[in-house]
Amino acid sequence: MEIVDLGATGLRSPQLGFGCASLMGRTGRKDSLRALGAAWDEGIRFFDTASSYGYGESEALLGGFLRGRRHEAVIATKFGILAAPQPAWKGAAKSVARTAFKLAPSLLRLLQKGAAQQFEHNQFTIPVLQQSIEQSLTRLGVDCVDILFLHAAPASVLEQHDLLDAMGRLVEAGKVRVAGLSGTPEVVELAVRQATPPLKAMQFPCNVFDLSAATAFASSPSAHALVANHPFGGVARVEQCRAVLQALASDPELDADLRGRLGDDDGSVLADVVLNSILSQTGIHVVIPAMTRVEHIRLNVRAVTQSRFTAGEIGKIRQALKKSQGAGPASAAA
């Protein structure tokens, strides 16, 4: 895959990254390692995790996987969401939940709702920062993470100058290469507009029904590393997008050749449209879907590296999607 500069941060990465939110949570150890292996073999080198993912187990699994190849990877993690301590029986319960999800994917929303109640959000204090980065470094087995994001941060965090100064000191100490913020497009745009130090990396949700973040940064190159998450928008958004693409394949306002390629039903059109709508001529450097199935990883890599659509055609599809559906609400930050 093509390697791009992540703004002026000094970091470089392929444009497709790997979201680790499901590792050791919805996805067990064996399947998690299989997904990481497939991603690595396909050339993916950007891995996005968090201290709260898998109750810390996501970081530990990723660190073990990257042992011996750390120098080739970009590791991003996050702090600010605390997971409640997990008793031993919860491990067995997670295994049961994974099996239930495989048998009945519609249970996902219910399982996510139950899991969300076990986390404390908006924990942006210096003690939490200090404890979290030390735990992350230990779990990952590294001396330094490439990016440390504030996790699902509200706009008010931009006024916490003592906390931001502490993040800057972690950069100076060499424990973090780049400090960043993960939040809604509105909060990210505010942080970029204010050039809030030391934040030089921004992560935000972006999908074909809400490209507000993509269009906000399209006019000029950003010095910030811009990372889009949750590109498929969840199960409901995927089905909505499929329906709209099927309608576009019959839209007489689009030329016949483009309609034909939109109508190719080989499973890859959705990934092609979603990922390239976010990456093509938007200024966004990396998009990070949560991929746990090997076939999805390969489809997504092929979509980014061998798109069937030109940049101009992606622009037409974006406009047609907007015209057909309008802009939807932003997805929750990962």
Quick overview:
By secondary structure, this protein is α/β, with parallel strands linked by helices.
Describe this structure in words.
The chain has 334 residues and is of the alpha/beta class. 45% of the residues lie in helices and 15% in strands. The protein has a single domain, classed as NADP-dependent oxidoreductase domain (TIM Barrel), CATH 3.20.20.100. The protein is built from 13 helices and 12 strands. It has an 8-stranded parallel beta sheet, covered by helices on one side. A two-stranded antiparallel sheet has the order 1-2. Strand 9 (176-182), helix 7 and strand 10 form a beta-alpha-beta unit. The longest helix is centred in the first third of the chain and has 15 residues, at 89-103.
What is Rg? 19 Å
How many domains? The number is 1
Unreliable runs = 327-333
CATH class: Alpha Beta
Specify the helix fraction band.
Answer: 40-55%
If classified by CATH, what would the architecture be?
Answer: Alpha-Beta Barrel
- Major beta sheet, strand line-up: 3-4-5-8-9-10-11-12
How are the SSEs placed, and which strands pair?
Layout: E1 3-5, E2 12-14, E3 18-19, H1 29-41, E4 46-48, H2 57-66, E5 74-79, E6 82-83, H3 89-103, H4 108-116, E7 119-120, H5 126-140, E8 145-150, H6 161-173, E9 176-182, H7 185-194, E10 199-205, H8 212-216, E11 225-229, H9 235-248, H10 256-262, H11 269-279, E12 286-288, H12 294-305, H13 311-325
Parallel strand pairs: 3-4, 4-5, 5-8, 8-9, 9-10, 10-11, 11-12
Antiparallel strand pairs: 1-2, 6-7
